[in-house]
Design goal:
By secondary structure, this protein is an all-alpha fold. 69% of the residues lie in helices and 0% in strands. The protein is built from ten helices and no strands. It has helices at 13-31, 38-45, 49-55, 59-70, 83-98, 101-114, 117-126, 130-145, 155-172, 178-193. Helix 4 packs antiparallel against helix 6 (101-114) and helix 4 (59-70) packs parallel to helix 7 (117-126).
Length: 198
C-alpha cells in the first residue's frame, strides 16, 4: 500500500532536508547515480517532487547537496598533533567516503559532466572544495606548530593528495588501499611541504 505523503504531518526546513538527503543517499547506494530519479527520491522521502525541484532544480544539484550534507566540516578534521598523522586522517576519511554514496555520486557526476559542457560547468559551480579546505586546515595547524614553513604552502600542494586518491578511485574503484594513502603522505605530500615553493 502506497502512503499518501500529503496526509502526513508536514515537514519543513532541516527535517525535510534531512529526509530528502537521506533518501538521495539511499537511492545512490541502491541503484547508483545513473538510475537515480527525482521521482524516486521524492517517493522515498515521502514528499512531493515540487519540494525537490524548488530547492534543487537538477539531479546534479540535489546529489551534490546530499553528499556534502554527510561530509565533515573542514574545520572539524582530526588533530593528531602531527602533520603526518593529520594528513593520514584526512586521506583515510576521503577514502572511506569514496567507498560509499559520495563515491558513487562522484563517478556518476563526472561521467555525466564529461560529455556536456553545461553539466561540467554546473558541477564546478556546485563544488564546495571541501577536500582542499580540509588540507588547508591540516597544513595551517602544521605551520602554527612549526612543522611546515608558510612559504612551502601552495594551492597545488594542497590539492595533490586528494587528487591522487580520487584518481586511484576513478580508475580502480573502491576500496582504496591504506598502503596507498601512507605512500601518498610519506612519499609525496610531506616531502613537498618540506620544500620552499619555487
Amino acid at each position: 500500500m502506497v502512503t499518501d505523503h500529503r496526509k502526513q504531518p508536514r515537514r519543513r526546513g532541516e527535517a525535510l532536508h534531512a529526509a530528502i538527503f537521506q533518501a538521495t543517499l539511499d537511492e545512490l547506494a541502491e541503484v547508483g547515480y545513473a538510475k537515480l530519479t527525482m521521482e524516486r527520491v521524492a517517493e522515498r522521502a515521502r514528499t512531493g517532487k515540487a519540494s525537490l525541484y524548488r530547492r534543487w532544480p537538477t539531479r546534479l544539484e540535489l546529489v551534490m547537496a546530499a553528499v556534502y550534507s554527510v561530509l565533515p566540516d573542514p574545520s572539524d578534521v582530526a588533530d593528531t598533533g602531527s602533520l603526518r598523522g593529520d594528513l593520514l586522517a584526512v586521506l583515510r576519511h576521503t577514502a572511506a567516503a569514496l567507498d560509499g554514496a559520495p563515491g558513487e555520486a562522484m563517478r556518476g557526476l563526472l561521467s555525466e559532466a564529461l560529455g556536456d559542457r553545461g553539466r561540467g560547468a554546473a558541477l564546478r559551480e556546485n563544488s564546495q572544495g571541501a577536500g582542499r579546505r580540509m588540507m588547508h586546515e591540516v597544513v595551517r595547524r602544521a605551520v602554527e606548530r612549526g612543522e611546515v614553513e608558510a612559504g612551502a604552502v601552495t594551492s597545488r600542494r594542497l590539492d595533490v593528495g586528494q587528487a591522487m586518491i580520487r584518481q586511484y578511485f576513478l580508475f580502480n574503484g573502491p576500496p582504496i588501499p591504506d598502503a596507498l594513502i601512507v605512500e601518498v603522505v610519506d612519499e609525496i605530500i610531506v616531502p613537498l611541504l618540506g620544500c620552499p615553493a619555487p
